TrEMBL record:
Residues 216-329 form the Glucose-methanol-choline oxidoreductase N-terminal domain. GO terms for molecular function: flavin adenine dinucleotide binding; oxidoreductase activity, acting on CH-OH group of donors. Belongs to the GMC oxidoreductase family. Residues 164-183 are annotated as: Disordered. SUPFAM superfamilies: FAD-linked reductases, C-terminal domain (SSF54373), FAD/NAD(P)-binding domain (SSF51905). It comes from the Bacteria. This is Gluconate 2-dehydrogenase alpha chain. Keywords: FAD, Flavoprotein, Oxidoreductase.
Amino acid sequence: MAEELEKVDVVTVGVGWTGGIIAAECAKEGMSVVGLERGKGRSIDDYYMIHDELRYAIRYDLMQDVSKETISFRNAPDQRALPMRQMGSFLLGQGLGGAGVHWNGQTHRFLPYDFEIRSQTIDKYGEGKIKDGMMLQDWGITYDELEPYFDHFEKICGISGEENPYSPRSNPYPTPPMKDTPVTDRARQAAENLNLKPFKTPSANLSEQYENPDGKTINACQYCAFCERFGCEYGAKTDPTITVIPTAQETGNYELRTHSNVVEVLHQDGRATGVRYVDVLSGKEYIQPAEVVVLTSYVMNNTKLLLVSDIGTPYNPETGRGNVGKNYCYQINAGSTGFFEEEQFNTFMGAGSLGICVDDYNGDNFDHADLDFVHGGVGSVTQTGQRPINTNPVPPGTPSWGREFKEKSIHYFTRHLGIGFQGASMPYRYNYLDLDPTYKDAYGVPLLRMTYNFTDQDKNLHKYLSQRATEFVKEMGADVATEAEELGDYNIVPYQTTHNTGGTPMGDNPDNSTVNNYSQMWEAENLFVVGASTFAHNSGYNPTGTVGALAYRAAEGIIRYSKEGGSLV
Protein backbone atom coordinates (compact mmCIF):
# COMPACT_ATOMS: atom_id res chain seq x y z
CA MET A 1 0.00 0.00 0.00
CA ALA A 2 1.25 3.50 -0.84
CA GLU A 3 2.43 5.68 2.04
CA GLU A 4 0.63 9.05 2.19
CA LEU A 5 2.89 12.03 2.87
CA GLU A 6 2.24 15.48 4.30
CA LYS A 7 0.29 17.78 2.01
CA VAL A 8 2.11 20.65 0.26
CA ASP A 9 1.00 23.70 -1.67
CA VAL A 10 2.44 22.63 -5.04
CA VAL A 11 3.84 19.42 -6.47
CA THR A 12 5.56 19.40 -9.88
CA VAL A 13 5.96 16.26 -11.98
CA GLY A 14 9.36 16.58 -13.66
CA VAL A 15 12.18 18.98 -12.84
CA GLY A 16 13.56 20.53 -16.01
CA TRP A 17 13.03 24.08 -17.24
CA THR A 18 9.30 24.15 -16.54
CA GLY A 19 9.45 22.35 -13.20
CA GLY A 20 12.35 24.52 -12.11
CA ILE A 21 10.63 27.76 -13.11
CA ILE A 22 7.38 26.84 -11.33
CA ALA A 23 9.32 25.79 -8.22
CA ALA A 24 11.46 28.93 -8.11
CA GLU A 25 8.59 31.38 -8.57
CA CYS A 26 6.19 29.65 -6.16
CA ALA A 27 8.86 29.03 -3.51
CA LYS A 28 9.88 32.70 -3.62
CA GLU A 29 6.25 33.52 -2.77
CA GLY A 30 6.47 31.36 0.36
CA MET A 31 4.59 28.37 -1.03
CA SER A 32 5.74 24.87 -0.10
CA VAL A 33 6.81 23.02 -3.26
CA VAL A 34 7.88 19.42 -3.91
CA GLY A 35 9.57 18.54 -7.19
CA LEU A 36 9.41 14.91 -8.31
CA GLU A 37 12.01 13.83 -10.86
CA ARG A 38 12.11 10.22 -12.03
CA GLY A 39 15.78 10.39 -13.05
CA LYS A 40 18.88 10.98 -10.98
CA GLY A 41 20.31 14.24 -9.73
CA ARG A 42 22.91 16.15 -11.75
CA SER A 43 25.28 19.08 -11.33
CA ILE A 44 28.30 20.59 -13.07
CA ASP A 45 30.50 18.17 -11.11
CA ASP A 46 29.04 15.33 -13.18
CA TYR A 47 30.33 16.80 -16.44
CA TYR A 48 34.08 17.11 -15.86
CA MET A 49 34.64 14.09 -18.10
CA ILE A 50 31.76 14.91 -20.45
CA HIS A 51 33.73 15.11 -23.74
CA ASP A 52 33.02 11.49 -24.63
CA GLU A 53 31.18 11.34 -27.94
CA LEU A 54 30.61 7.60 -27.79
CA ARG A 55 29.07 7.63 -24.32
CA TYR A 56 26.85 10.68 -24.65
CA ALA A 57 26.18 11.40 -28.35
CA ILE A 58 26.04 7.83 -29.62
CA ARG A 59 24.97 5.77 -26.60
CA TYR A 60 22.71 8.50 -25.11
CA ASP A 61 23.93 8.41 -21.50
CA LEU A 62 21.71 11.36 -20.51
CA MET A 63 18.58 9.93 -22.12
CA GLN A 64 15.65 7.78 -21.03
CA ASP A 65 16.03 4.01 -20.70
CA VAL A 66 13.55 2.85 -23.36
CA SER A 67 13.73 -0.72 -22.07
CA LYS A 68 11.70 0.52 -19.08
CA GLU A 69 9.51 3.19 -20.62
CA THR A 70 9.04 4.08 -24.25
CA ILE A 71 6.27 4.88 -26.74
CA SER A 72 4.63 2.82 -29.47
CA PHE A 73 4.31 4.15 -32.99
CA ARG A 74 2.28 3.73 -36.19
CA ASN A 75 1.68 5.88 -39.26
CA ALA A 76 -2.11 5.44 -39.41
CA PRO A 77 -5.01 4.23 -37.24
CA ASP A 78 -5.45 1.04 -39.28
CA GLN A 79 -1.90 -0.11 -38.48
CA ARG A 80 -0.64 -1.95 -35.41
CA ALA A 81 1.67 0.19 -33.29
CA LEU A 82 4.96 -1.26 -32.08
CA PRO A 83 7.21 -0.04 -29.26
CA MET A 84 10.28 2.08 -30.00
CA ARG A 85 13.01 -0.23 -28.65
CA GLN A 86 15.95 2.12 -29.08
CA MET A 87 16.33 5.88 -29.43
CA GLY A 88 15.37 6.92 -32.91
CA SER A 89 13.63 9.92 -34.45
CA PHE A 90 13.80 11.91 -31.21
CA LEU A 91 15.60 11.65 -27.87
CA LEU A 92 13.67 11.34 -24.63
CA GLY A 93 15.70 12.90 -21.84
CA GLN A 94 15.74 11.89 -18.20
CA GLY A 95 17.31 13.23 -15.03
CA LEU A 96 17.47 16.52 -13.15
CA GLY A 97 17.31 19.46 -15.55
CA GLY A 98 15.73 17.35 -18.30
CA ALA A 99 16.42 18.38 -21.88
CA GLY A 100 17.59 21.74 -20.51
CA VAL A 101 20.89 20.04 -19.65
CA HIS A 102 21.68 18.47 -23.02
CA TRP A 103 20.15 21.05 -25.37
CA ASN A 104 22.05 23.19 -27.89
CA GLY A 105 20.76 26.41 -26.35
CA GLN A 106 19.08 27.94 -29.41
CA THR A 107 16.44 30.19 -27.84
CA HIS A 108 14.03 31.66 -30.37
CA ARG A 109 10.65 33.26 -29.75
CA PHE A 110 7.64 32.04 -31.71
CA LEU A 111 6.37 34.71 -34.10
CA PRO A 112 3.31 36.94 -33.57
CA TYR A 113 1.71 34.99 -36.44
CA ASP A 114 2.01 31.73 -34.51
CA PHE A 115 -0.28 32.72 -31.68
CA GLU A 116 -3.08 33.88 -34.01
CA ILE A 117 -2.33 31.54 -36.88
CA ARG A 118 -5.89 30.58 -37.79
CA SER A 119 -7.41 34.06 -37.72
CA GLN A 120 -4.44 35.70 -39.49
CA THR A 121 -4.32 33.02 -42.19
CA ILE A 122 -8.04 33.37 -42.90
CA ASP A 123 -7.91 37.17 -42.83
CA LYS A 124 -5.13 37.25 -45.42
CA TYR A 125 -5.83 34.23 -47.65
CA GLY A 126 -9.38 33.08 -46.90
CA GLU A 127 -10.64 29.88 -45.30
CA GLY A 128 -9.70 27.85 -48.37
CA LYS A 129 -6.04 28.15 -47.39
CA ILE A 130 -6.68 25.78 -44.48
CA LYS A 131 -6.86 22.32 -46.03
CA ASP A 132 -9.27 19.56 -45.01
CA GLY A 133 -8.08 17.83 -41.89
CA MET A 134 -5.75 20.66 -40.83
CA MET A 135 -6.87 21.70 -37.34
CA LEU A 136 -5.39 25.17 -37.06
CA GLN A 137 -6.43 27.15 -33.99
CA ASP A 138 -5.40 30.35 -32.26
CA TRP A 139 -3.69 29.93 -28.90
CA GLY A 140 -5.92 32.20 -26.86
CA ILE A 141 -3.01 34.58 -26.24
CA THR A 142 -1.19 37.09 -28.42
CA TYR A 143 2.52 37.70 -28.87
CA ASP A 144 2.18 41.11 -27.24
CA GLU A 145 0.61 39.52 -24.15
CA LEU A 146 3.39 36.92 -23.95
CA GLU A 147 6.29 39.26 -24.76
CA PRO A 148 7.05 40.26 -21.12
CA TYR A 149 7.40 36.57 -20.23
CA PHE A 150 9.76 36.00 -23.17
CA ASP A 151 11.78 38.95 -21.93
CA HIS A 152 11.94 37.60 -18.38
CA PHE A 153 12.99 34.09 -19.44
CA GLU A 154 15.77 35.52 -21.59
CA LYS A 155 17.02 37.58 -18.65
CA ILE A 156 17.02 34.55 -16.37
CA CYS A 157 19.05 32.70 -19.02
CA GLY A 158 21.25 35.66 -20.02
CA ILE A 159 20.56 34.94 -23.70
CA SER A 160 23.19 36.26 -26.10
CA GLY A 161 21.65 37.56 -29.28
CA GLU A 162 21.10 40.03 -32.07
CA GLU A 163 17.67 41.44 -32.89
CA ASN A 164 15.51 39.44 -35.27
CA PRO A 165 13.84 41.95 -37.64
CA TYR A 166 10.64 39.85 -37.66
CA SER A 167 10.28 39.52 -33.87
CA PRO A 168 9.60 42.79 -31.97
CA ARG A 169 11.26 43.15 -28.56
CA SER A 170 10.73 45.42 -25.57
CA ASN A 171 14.41 45.17 -24.53
CA PRO A 172 17.74 44.16 -26.09
CA TYR A 173 19.14 40.71 -25.35
CA PRO A 174 20.84 40.59 -21.94
CA THR A 175 24.27 39.79 -23.44
CA PRO A 176 25.89 40.48 -26.83
CA PRO A 177 25.79 37.91 -29.65
CA MET A 178 28.39 35.18 -29.90
CA LYS A 179 31.64 35.48 -31.84
CA ASP A 180 31.92 35.99 -35.58
CA THR A 181 33.80 33.25 -37.41
CA PRO A 182 34.73 32.69 -41.07
CA VAL A 183 31.69 30.41 -41.31
CA THR A 184 29.21 32.92 -39.86
CA ASP A 185 30.75 35.75 -41.90
CA ARG A 186 30.29 33.72 -45.09
CA ALA A 187 26.69 32.89 -44.17
CA ARG A 188 25.87 36.52 -43.40
CA GLN A 189 27.33 37.68 -46.71
CA ALA A 190 25.41 35.04 -48.66
CA ALA A 191 22.17 36.06 -46.96
CA GLU A 192 22.72 39.73 -47.76
CA ASN A 193 23.55 38.86 -51.37
CA LEU A 194 20.17 37.12 -51.58
CA ASN A 195 18.41 40.17 -50.05
CA LEU A 196 17.64 38.27 -46.85
CA LYS A 197 17.90 39.64 -43.30
CA PRO A 198 20.48 37.61 -41.34
CA PHE A 199 20.89 37.69 -37.57
CA LYS A 200 22.95 35.80 -35.01
CA THR A 201 21.29 32.76 -33.43
CA PRO A 202 19.86 33.66 -30.00
CA SER A 203 22.06 31.63 -27.69
CA ALA A 204 22.04 30.16 -24.19
CA ASN A 205 25.78 29.56 -24.69
CA LEU A 206 26.74 32.94 -23.30
CA SER A 207 29.11 35.37 -25.00
CA GLU A 208 30.25 36.73 -21.62
CA GLN A 209 29.87 36.02 -17.92
CA TYR A 210 26.47 37.15 -16.65
CA GLU A 211 24.59 37.40 -13.35
CA ASN A 212 20.83 36.89 -13.75
CA PRO A 213 18.05 38.63 -11.80
CA ASP A 214 18.01 35.77 -9.26
CA GLY A 215 21.72 36.28 -8.56
CA LYS A 216 22.92 33.18 -10.44
CA THR A 217 26.16 33.44 -12.42
CA ILE A 218 26.45 31.89 -15.88
CA ASN A 219 29.94 31.73 -17.40
CA ALA A 220 31.20 32.59 -20.86
CA CYS A 221 31.19 29.89 -23.55
CA GLN A 222 34.51 28.15 -24.32
CA TYR A 223 33.42 27.05 -27.85
CA CYS A 224 34.37 23.43 -27.07
CA ALA A 225 31.79 21.90 -29.51
CA PHE A 226 30.21 19.60 -26.91
CA CYS A 227 26.70 21.07 -26.39
CA GLU A 228 23.91 18.96 -27.85
CA ARG A 229 23.56 15.65 -25.93
CA PHE A 230 26.12 16.89 -23.38
CA GLY A 231 26.06 18.86 -20.14
CA CYS A 232 28.38 21.87 -19.76
CA GLU A 233 31.18 21.52 -17.22
CA TYR A 234 31.94 25.24 -17.40
CA GLY A 235 28.44 26.35 -16.43
CA ALA A 236 28.47 28.37 -19.65
CA LYS A 237 25.38 26.82 -21.23
CA THR A 238 22.38 28.04 -19.28
CA ASP A 239 20.44 25.16 -17.80
CA PRO A 240 17.95 24.65 -14.95
CA THR A 241 20.55 23.06 -12.62
CA ILE A 242 22.56 26.30 -12.43
CA THR A 243 19.65 28.77 -12.48
CA VAL A 244 16.07 28.12 -11.43
CA ILE A 245 16.54 24.91 -9.43
CA PRO A 246 19.13 26.37 -7.01
CA THR A 247 17.00 29.52 -6.82
CA ALA A 248 14.11 27.39 -5.58
CA GLN A 249 16.30 25.45 -3.15
CA GLU A 250 17.73 28.58 -1.55
CA THR A 251 14.26 29.72 -0.43
CA GLY A 252 13.96 26.85 2.05
CA ASN A 253 10.47 26.17 0.67
CA TYR A 254 11.46 23.59 -1.94
CA GLU A 255 12.11 19.87 -1.64
CA LEU A 256 13.57 17.97 -4.58
CA ARG A 257 13.05 14.21 -4.78
CA THR A 258 14.94 12.37 -7.52
CA HIS A 259 14.32 8.75 -8.59
CA SER A 260 10.59 9.47 -8.14
CA ASN A 261 8.45 8.28 -11.04
CA VAL A 262 4.88 9.60 -11.00
CA VAL A 263 2.45 7.00 -12.36
CA GLU A 264 -0.91 8.65 -11.62
CA VAL A 265 -2.50 12.01 -10.88
CA LEU A 266 -5.09 11.53 -8.15
CA HIS A 267 -8.35 13.46 -8.39
CA GLN A 268 -11.83 13.71 -6.94
CA ASP A 269 -14.90 15.77 -7.83
CA GLY A 270 -13.16 17.65 -10.64
CA ARG A 271 -10.05 18.55 -8.66
CA ALA A 272 -6.58 17.05 -8.49
CA THR A 273 -5.73 15.92 -4.96
CA GLY A 274 -2.11 14.86 -5.48
CA VAL A 275 0.02 12.26 -7.24
CA ARG A 276 1.06 8.66 -6.75
CA TYR A 277 4.70 7.90 -7.42
CA VAL A 278 7.19 5.06 -7.21
CA ASP A 279 10.67 5.32 -5.70
CA VAL A 280 12.52 3.63 -8.58
CA LEU A 281 15.38 2.52 -6.30
CA SER A 282 13.33 0.89 -3.54
CA GLY A 283 10.11 0.14 -5.45
CA LYS A 284 8.07 1.71 -2.66
CA GLU A 285 4.94 3.73 -3.56
CA TYR A 286 4.01 7.11 -2.11
CA ILE A 287 1.08 9.50 -2.34
CA GLN A 288 1.97 13.18 -2.35
CA PRO A 289 -1.13 15.31 -1.65
CA ALA A 290 -1.05 18.91 -2.91
CA GLU A 291 -3.30 21.95 -3.27
CA VAL A 292 -2.01 22.40 -6.84
CA VAL A 293 -0.59 19.72 -9.15
CA VAL A 294 1.60 20.84 -12.04
CA LEU A 295 2.63 18.54 -14.89
CA THR A 296 6.07 19.75 -15.97
CA SER A 297 7.45 16.65 -17.66
CA TYR A 298 8.28 16.09 -21.32
CA VAL A 299 5.59 16.40 -24.03
CA MET A 300 4.86 12.68 -24.11
CA ASN A 301 4.56 12.16 -20.38
CA ASN A 302 2.29 15.17 -19.75
CA THR A 303 -0.23 13.67 -22.15
CA LYS A 304 0.26 10.12 -20.90
CA LEU A 305 -0.36 11.08 -17.26
CA LEU A 306 -3.67 12.77 -18.10
CA LEU A 307 -4.80 9.76 -20.11
CA VAL A 308 -3.83 7.08 -17.56
CA SER A 309 -5.34 9.19 -14.76
CA ASP A 310 -8.63 9.62 -16.66
CA ILE A 311 -8.50 13.42 -16.46
CA GLY A 312 -9.95 15.36 -19.37
CA THR A 313 -11.59 13.94 -22.48
CA PRO A 314 -9.35 11.85 -24.76
CA TYR A 315 -9.23 13.00 -28.36
CA ASN A 316 -11.21 10.89 -30.82
CA PRO A 317 -10.09 11.46 -34.44
CA GLU A 318 -13.30 9.96 -35.85
CA THR A 319 -15.69 12.26 -34.01
CA GLY A 320 -13.31 15.17 -33.39
CA ARG A 321 -14.38 15.24 -29.73
CA GLY A 322 -11.96 15.55 -26.84
CA ASN A 323 -8.68 17.41 -26.54
CA VAL A 324 -6.22 15.23 -24.58
CA GLY A 325 -3.88 13.72 -27.18
CA LYS A 326 -4.94 16.19 -29.87
CA ASN A 327 -2.70 18.35 -32.10
CA TYR A 328 0.46 16.27 -31.83
CA CYS A 329 3.05 17.92 -34.10
CA TYR A 330 6.65 17.35 -35.02
CA GLN A 331 8.90 19.28 -37.44
CA ILE A 332 10.51 18.79 -40.83
CA ASN A 333 14.22 19.11 -41.60
CA ALA A 334 14.73 20.71 -44.96
CA GLY A 335 18.10 21.90 -46.21
CA SER A 336 21.10 21.53 -48.44
CA THR A 337 24.77 20.69 -47.88
CA GLY A 338 27.59 22.22 -49.88
CA PHE A 339 30.97 20.62 -50.56
CA PHE A 340 34.05 22.79 -51.11
CA GLU A 341 37.06 21.29 -52.91
CA GLU A 342 39.75 23.75 -51.91
CA GLU A 343 38.54 25.74 -48.91
CA GLN A 344 38.63 24.36 -45.38
CA PHE A 345 36.69 25.55 -42.34
CA ASN A 346 37.29 25.13 -38.62
CA THR A 347 34.03 23.21 -38.24
CA PHE A 348 35.47 20.98 -35.50
CA MET A 349 35.13 24.01 -33.20
CA GLY A 350 31.90 25.71 -32.19
CA ALA A 351 28.99 25.92 -29.79
CA GLY A 352 25.41 24.71 -29.78
CA SER A 353 23.99 28.10 -30.76
CA LEU A 354 26.82 29.57 -32.81
CA GLY A 355 25.34 30.47 -36.16
CA ILE A 356 23.50 32.78 -38.52
CA CYS A 357 19.74 32.61 -39.05
CA VAL A 358 17.34 33.91 -41.68
CA ASP A 359 13.63 34.26 -40.92
CA ASP A 360 12.52 35.47 -44.33
CA TYR A 361 10.90 32.08 -45.08
CA ASN A 362 9.36 31.55 -41.64
CA GLY A 363 5.78 32.05 -40.47
CA ASP A 364 3.93 34.38 -42.81
CA ASN A 365 6.99 36.57 -43.40
CA PHE A 366 6.63 35.83 -47.14
CA ASP A 367 3.63 35.66 -49.45
CA HIS A 368 1.83 32.30 -49.47
CA ALA A 369 -0.91 33.23 -51.93
CA ASP A 370 0.39 30.95 -54.69
CA LEU A 371 1.96 28.32 -52.42
CA ASP A 372 0.34 25.03 -51.42
CA PHE A 373 1.26 25.23 -47.74
CA VAL A 374 1.10 27.58 -44.76
CA HIS A 375 3.90 28.73 -42.43
CA GLY A 376 7.61 28.06 -43.08
CA GLY A 377 10.82 27.68 -41.12
CA VAL A 378 13.94 29.37 -39.81
CA GLY A 379 17.08 28.76 -41.86
CA SER A 380 20.31 28.34 -39.92
CA VAL A 381 23.96 27.97 -40.81
CA THR A 382 25.35 26.63 -37.56
CA GLN A 383 28.84 25.95 -36.33
CA THR A 384 28.00 23.59 -33.50
CA GLY A 385 31.22 21.62 -33.79
CA GLN A 386 31.55 18.49 -35.91
CA ARG A 387 32.57 15.40 -33.93
CA PRO A 388 34.35 12.54 -35.72
CA ILE A 389 32.20 9.51 -34.91
CA ASN A 390 28.90 10.93 -36.04
CA THR A 391 30.15 13.13 -38.90
CA ASN A 392 30.82 11.51 -42.27
CA PRO A 393 30.04 14.10 -44.96
CA VAL A 394 30.48 12.77 -48.49
CA PRO A 395 29.23 14.02 -51.87
CA PRO A 396 26.56 12.15 -53.86
CA GLY A 397 27.70 8.95 -55.51
CA THR A 398 30.18 8.03 -52.77
CA PRO A 399 29.92 4.43 -51.54
CA SER A 400 28.51 4.09 -48.03
CA TRP A 401 31.46 2.01 -46.84
CA GLY A 402 34.97 1.02 -47.83
CA ARG A 403 38.18 2.79 -48.78
CA GLU A 404 36.65 5.53 -50.94
CA PHE A 405 34.08 6.34 -48.24
CA LYS A 406 36.83 6.67 -45.63
CA GLU A 407 39.03 8.83 -47.84
CA LYS A 408 36.23 11.22 -48.74
CA SER A 409 34.93 11.36 -45.15
CA ILE A 410 38.35 12.60 -44.07
CA HIS A 411 38.75 14.93 -47.04
CA TYR A 412 35.37 16.64 -46.60
CA PHE A 413 35.31 16.71 -42.80
CA THR A 414 36.35 20.39 -42.85
CA ARG A 415 35.20 21.10 -46.41
CA HIS A 416 31.46 21.14 -46.08
CA LEU A 417 28.90 23.71 -44.97
CA GLY A 418 25.13 23.68 -45.17
CA ILE A 419 21.97 25.47 -44.20
CA GLY A 420 19.16 23.65 -42.44
CA PHE A 421 15.55 24.75 -42.13
CA GLN A 422 13.38 23.75 -39.19
CA GLY A 423 10.02 23.53 -40.89
CA ALA A 424 6.83 24.17 -38.93
CA SER A 425 4.33 21.36 -38.32
CA MET A 426 0.59 21.86 -38.53
CA PRO A 427 -1.93 19.72 -36.58
CA TYR A 428 -3.89 17.17 -38.58
CA ARG A 429 -6.89 15.06 -37.72
CA TYR A 430 -5.11 11.70 -37.72
CA ASN A 431 -1.87 12.81 -36.05
CA TYR A 432 -2.52 12.26 -32.35
CA LEU A 433 -1.56 10.54 -29.09
CA ASP A 434 -3.50 7.95 -27.10
CA LEU A 435 -2.86 4.93 -24.86
CA ASP A 436 -1.61 1.70 -26.35
CA PRO A 437 -4.10 -1.13 -25.70
CA THR A 438 -1.39 -3.82 -25.70
CA TYR A 439 1.94 -2.64 -24.34
CA LYS A 440 2.81 -1.45 -20.81
CA ASP A 441 5.90 0.06 -19.21
CA ALA A 442 7.97 -1.37 -16.35
CA TYR A 443 5.47 0.01 -13.82
CA GLY A 444 2.42 -1.62 -15.41
CA VAL A 445 1.19 1.62 -17.00
CA PRO A 446 0.07 1.57 -20.67
CA LEU A 447 2.53 3.01 -23.14
CA LEU A 448 1.67 6.20 -24.95
CA ARG A 449 0.85 5.46 -28.59
CA MET A 450 1.82 7.90 -31.32
CA THR A 451 -0.10 7.93 -34.61
CA TYR A 452 1.76 10.21 -37.00
CA ASN A 453 2.69 10.69 -40.63
CA PHE A 454 3.92 13.52 -42.81
CA THR A 455 1.17 15.26 -44.79
CA ASP A 456 1.05 17.03 -48.15
CA GLN A 457 1.47 20.26 -46.17
CA ASP A 458 4.76 18.92 -44.77
CA LYS A 459 5.98 17.60 -48.12
CA ASN A 460 5.21 20.80 -50.00
CA LEU A 461 6.84 22.99 -47.34
CA HIS A 462 9.88 20.70 -47.19
CA LYS A 463 10.40 20.89 -50.96
CA TYR A 464 10.09 24.69 -51.00
CA LEU A 465 12.53 25.22 -48.11
CA SER A 466 15.05 22.75 -49.53
CA GLN A 467 15.06 24.66 -52.82
CA ARG A 468 15.74 27.91 -50.94
CA ALA A 469 18.50 26.11 -49.03
CA THR A 470 20.22 25.02 -52.24
CA GLU A 471 20.16 28.60 -53.51
CA PHE A 472 21.78 29.70 -50.27
CA VAL A 473 24.50 27.03 -50.31
CA LYS A 474 25.44 27.93 -53.90
CA GLU A 475 25.64 31.58 -52.87
CA MET A 476 28.10 30.55 -50.14
CA GLY A 477 30.36 29.28 -52.93
CA ALA A 478 29.94 25.52 -52.75
CA ASP A 479 31.31 23.48 -55.65
CA VAL A 480 28.58 20.87 -55.16
CA ALA A 481 25.19 21.40 -53.44
CA THR A 482 23.16 18.40 -52.30
CA GLU A 483 19.53 19.12 -51.63
CA ALA A 484 17.61 17.13 -49.00
CA GLU A 485 15.59 14.25 -50.42
CA GLU A 486 11.84 14.77 -50.69
CA LEU A 487 9.77 13.53 -47.77
CA GLY A 488 8.11 10.14 -47.81
CA ASP A 489 6.35 8.52 -44.87
CA TYR A 490 7.52 9.46 -41.41
CA ASN A 491 9.71 6.84 -39.76
CA ILE A 492 10.56 6.50 -36.07
CA VAL A 493 14.22 6.19 -37.17
CA PRO A 494 16.70 7.78 -37.81
CA TYR A 495 17.14 10.81 -35.53
CA GLN A 496 15.46 13.93 -36.92
CA THR A 497 14.62 16.36 -34.11
CA THR A 498 13.45 16.25 -30.51
CA HIS A 499 11.01 19.13 -31.06
CA ASN A 500 7.80 17.23 -30.35
CA THR A 501 4.79 19.35 -29.38
CA GLY A 502 1.08 19.08 -28.64
CA GLY A 503 -1.18 16.60 -26.91
CA THR A 504 -2.63 19.09 -24.42
CA PRO A 505 -3.23 22.12 -26.68
CA MET A 506 -3.83 25.64 -25.42
CA GLY A 507 -6.81 27.71 -26.51
CA ASP A 508 -9.48 30.19 -25.52
CA ASN A 509 -12.29 27.73 -24.77
CA PRO A 510 -12.71 24.14 -23.59
CA ASP A 511 -14.25 23.05 -26.89
CA ASN A 512 -10.93 23.09 -28.72
CA SER A 513 -8.27 22.99 -26.01
CA THR A 514 -7.04 21.23 -22.88
CA VAL A 515 -5.68 24.27 -21.05
CA ASN A 516 -6.22 28.02 -21.03
CA ASN A 517 -3.47 30.57 -21.60
CA TYR A 518 -2.22 30.19 -18.02
CA SER A 519 -1.75 26.43 -18.71
CA GLN A 520 -4.65 25.72 -16.32
CA MET A 521 -6.82 22.74 -17.24
CA TRP A 522 -10.39 23.56 -18.15
CA GLU A 523 -11.61 20.33 -16.57
CA ALA A 524 -9.59 20.51 -13.33
CA GLU A 525 -8.86 24.06 -12.21
CA ASN A 526 -6.07 23.19 -9.73
CA LEU A 527 -4.18 21.11 -12.32
CA PHE A 528 -1.71 22.94 -14.57
CA VAL A 529 -0.01 21.40 -17.61
CA VAL A 530 3.16 23.28 -18.56
CA GLY A 531 5.46 22.75 -21.52
CA ALA A 532 5.49 22.14 -25.26
CA SER A 533 2.54 19.74 -24.92
CA THR A 534 0.37 22.88 -24.74
CA PHE A 535 1.47 24.15 -28.16
CA ALA A 536 -1.48 24.22 -30.56
CA HIS A 537 0.96 23.63 -33.45
CA ASN A 538 4.73 23.61 -33.86
CA SER A 539 6.46 26.64 -35.29
CA GLY A 540 9.60 26.76 -37.42
CA TYR A 541 11.81 27.24 -34.36
CA ASN A 542 13.35 25.50 -31.38
CA PRO A 543 10.58 25.43 -28.74
CA THR A 544 12.49 26.26 -25.51
CA GLY A 545 12.11 30.04 -25.59
CA THR A 546 8.33 29.73 -25.91
CA VAL A 547 8.24 26.94 -23.30
CA GLY A 548 10.08 29.22 -20.87
CA ALA A 549 7.77 32.17 -21.51
CA LEU A 550 4.64 30.05 -21.01
CA ALA A 551 6.16 28.57 -17.82
CA TYR A 552 6.61 32.03 -16.29
CA ARG A 553 3.04 32.92 -17.20
CA ALA A 554 1.85 29.63 -15.67
CA ALA A 555 3.80 30.36 -12.48
CA GLU A 556 2.08 33.73 -12.25
CA GLY A 557 -1.27 31.98 -12.71
CA ILE A 558 -0.53 29.34 -10.05
CA ILE A 559 0.39 32.00 -7.51
CA ARG A 560 -2.76 33.95 -8.33
CA TYR A 561 -4.88 30.79 -8.18
CA SER A 562 -3.49 29.93 -4.75
CA LYS A 563 -4.79 33.27 -3.48
CA GLU A 564 -8.05 33.62 -5.42
CA GLY A 565 -9.04 30.19 -6.76
CA GLY A 566 -11.27 29.65 -9.78
CA SER A 567 -10.60 29.90 -13.48
CA LEU A 568 -7.88 32.43 -14.37
CA VAL A 569 -9.48 33.53 -17.66
